[in-house]
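$ run holo --ligand "adenosine-5'-diphosphate" --emit tokens
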Amino acid sequence: MRVYKFGGASVKDADAVKHVGEILSKFGGEDLVVVVSAMGKTTNALEKVVEAYYNKTDDPFKLLEVVKVQHYELIDELFEDGNAIKASVNDLFVEVEWVIEDEVHDSYDYVYDQIVSTGELVSTRIISAYLNEIGYENEWLDIRDIIQTDNTYREGKVDWELTLANAQSKIPTILKNKKRAVTQGFLGVTSENHTTTLGREGSDYTAAILSYCLDAEGMSIWKDVPGILTADPRRFKNVTKIDRLSYKEAIEMTYYGAKVIHPKTIKPIQNKNIPLFVKSFLDPEGAGTVISGDLELNYPPVVVVEPNQALLHISTKDFSFVAEDHLGKLFTLFAKHRLKVNMMQNKAISFSVCVKNAPYRINKVMEEMKDEFHVVKDSGIELITVRHHQDALVESLKENKIVLIEDRGKSTIQMVLRPISKLQPINEEG
Ligand code: ADP
Ligand code: ASP
Ligand code: MG
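-- output --
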């Protein structure tokens, strides 16, 4: 069997969904699990509903209405009048309305997962029904019958043993009867049957979990790029496609923040030696990128940019050196508040860490540090990682920027940079 994953961009409107139907009819064959994300920017829109409801910053019903209308318009374009799909999608939105009618009495992260998960539930309902309409027979599968997680809402940790047992007992029967299953990315369920999510962009990871559990022959993720490129084409011109990557190289790239694949995706498929094809839904015949094997190849320089970072400069209040016991305390705090350290530098009396600029989490950490440490925070900075670096490229990336910290390894350079505006001489005449 094989696993295909279609992300938000590939199902953003009616034409995109029809195009997915064509790709599946042509390349999908049988014995396939199709993992689908929420349509277009639905997840962002539902995040706004949660924010408005929880913090009373806006009218959550009005924001939800926008999402509903988008989905109903899509249904009108894809189906004849009176198709039962509209009612089943409506039922899912009504469940959200029940939540937001009530006073808030659960944690933010819990409420987030109950509301935001609706994006994937409705998209898969619509796409599964549409595919059946065009004769691409499939069964809608609720992934919450398969992927079990703990109750870390917004970042559920997978219970591999239970998930493996569920997948192996339920999915082969569906594939035998209906040839293909269509299911949601990004979602899981706790042992008390509450919906969880696996972290933003987690649908790639879902596809990897299923590939692992079902010993897939291959996994394909269909994207709006020709494959893995030497940098994000939204940031740089002259990027080129990398035809082949080892699992290790792909893990490195995604670890440093290359947004093209969720970082947790590669490990499960590497463990079972399952090839991962990154394909373009705009050019389905194109070769894409193949991730497989452990052979290290000659790679071109690859650039990964993480914008919106903060640099925390930490020193002790009693002027002592920042030693192991301090570092132990600091890392315990970062873990407690789920603040991922992207880069760090330790000097005699100060310790600097680069983290994502998430003010809410950073403030909590700073609050707990304040008795023992002085902390100065720099924001408005970016972290650039270059794999397989070449001097000229690295220098060009530093242009018009101040290097706050730099770490130069054999195959990886990391730099924390602050952009500076170019000084413009004042013309004497004014
Ligand atoms: P999906 O909708 O499948 O989740 P994403 O939008 O998450 O797709 O991922 C595809 C995007 O990743 C591309 O549009 C591109 O802008 C971005 N991207 C970042 N780095 C790279 C890279 N090195 N190669 C290709 N795409 C990249
Ligand atoms: N819909 C989710 C998100 O936008 C998961 C995904 O697309 O991978 O984060
Ligand atoms: Mg994504």
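-- notes --
The two ends are 72 Å apart (CA to CA).
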